[in-house]
Amino acid sequence: MKRIILTLLALLLLPTFFFHLRGQDRRAVYNSFSIGLGGQKITDEYLSPLNYGGWAISVQMDKEMPIAKIKPLMFYSHLSVQFAETLNPSRTAAIVSFRGEGLLVPHYLFSLQYGIKIGLGTGVRASFGTRLHSRNGNNPITLDAKADWIVSSLLAYRLPFRKWPVAIRLRTHYGLLGVANSLAYGSSYYEESFIGKGIANAVAFTHIANSFHTSSSLNFDIPFWNLVTLQLGCKWDVDRAFLNNRLTYMHSIVGTLGIAFERISFFGRKASYNKQYPSLLFDTTY
């Protein structure tokens, strides 16, 4: 398990080396990396009509970077990998699930009184994973693949204290339209994809009438001297869809612990008040 977590964390760190600020834009890029642990509930009627519940572990990366030199535009990106093991009410069968998710959203930033910042934007979200049932011989596995167009919001505030400039971020994402993989109960992935009408027959359109997918996260960046900035937070995710007369439902809540830094440096309090590389979110007035 330790090797799996370290491998996933290393994979999530790789994209940071492909994002760099242009020389003329001195606003710092914000990065955070965290590991989460919590609980998850799953209902997948392709595998079983019962509700399953258990534990979940996740690794995630978040990034904020400026788009334009002057305009209050920011790119927000998120990558995460989550693994969960859930049991049925009698604890006689398990569903093991894996999901990787990524989203990219441009935000337009607004400055309010008292240093409060609001970001609004729209972008894309994609996820891919699997669910495996331990005792279902006919339908032991299902795909968890979807992509959708989302609206996103950000509420941010940094406490006005030199010694403890704690930064608070509340993010919310909500899906509007998209596509998802879905088969009716008893259908075969092999028959539908390779013998029948092809893999397109297993794709369904999602919208607010048949799908509800929202996620929210609350994070506190706490600087300790000029050494490191620790991030404490929690993430709430609800994904419910009724496609091909089959219900799929996933609800997870995880607490997260990680690190956060501006540009590629660990500077704690100095990162909160850095004249050379001012914070994109808190040190720029729009």
Task: Note down, in words, how this protein is organized.
The chain is mainly β and 286 residues long. It has one domain (2-15, 32-272): Beta Barrel (Lipocalin), CATH 2.40.128.100. The protein contains three helices and eleven strands. Strands 1-2-3-4-5-6-7-9-10-11 form a ten-stranded antiparallel beta barrel. The chain is globular. The N and C termini lie far apart (46 Å). The model is unreliable at 11-25 (pLDDT under 50).
Note the main attributes of this structure:
286 residues, mainly beta, Lipocalin, ten-stranded antiparallel β-barrel, 3 helices, 11 strands, 8% helix, 57% strand
* Spatial arrangement of strands, main beta sheet: 1-2-3-4-5-6-7-9-10-11
Element pattern in H and E? HEEEEEEEHEEEEH
Give a count of the beta strands, DSSP E runs of length 2 or more.
11
Low-confidence stretches: 11-25
Largest sheet: 10 strands, antiparallel, barrel
Q: Please state the average pLDDT score.
A: 80
Return the CATH topology.
Lipocalin
Q: Give the N-terminus to C-terminus distance in angstroms.
A: 46 Å
Count of domains: 1
List the helices and strands and how they pair.
Blueprint: H1 2-13, E1 30-44, E2 52-66, E3 73-87, E4 94-111, E5 117-133, E6 141-158, E7 167-181, H2 189-195, E8 203-206, E9 211-224, E10 228-243, E11 246-262, H3 269-272
Antiparallel strand pairs: 1-2, 1-11, 2-3, 3-4, 4-5, 5-6, 6-7, 7-8, 7-9, 9-10, 10-11
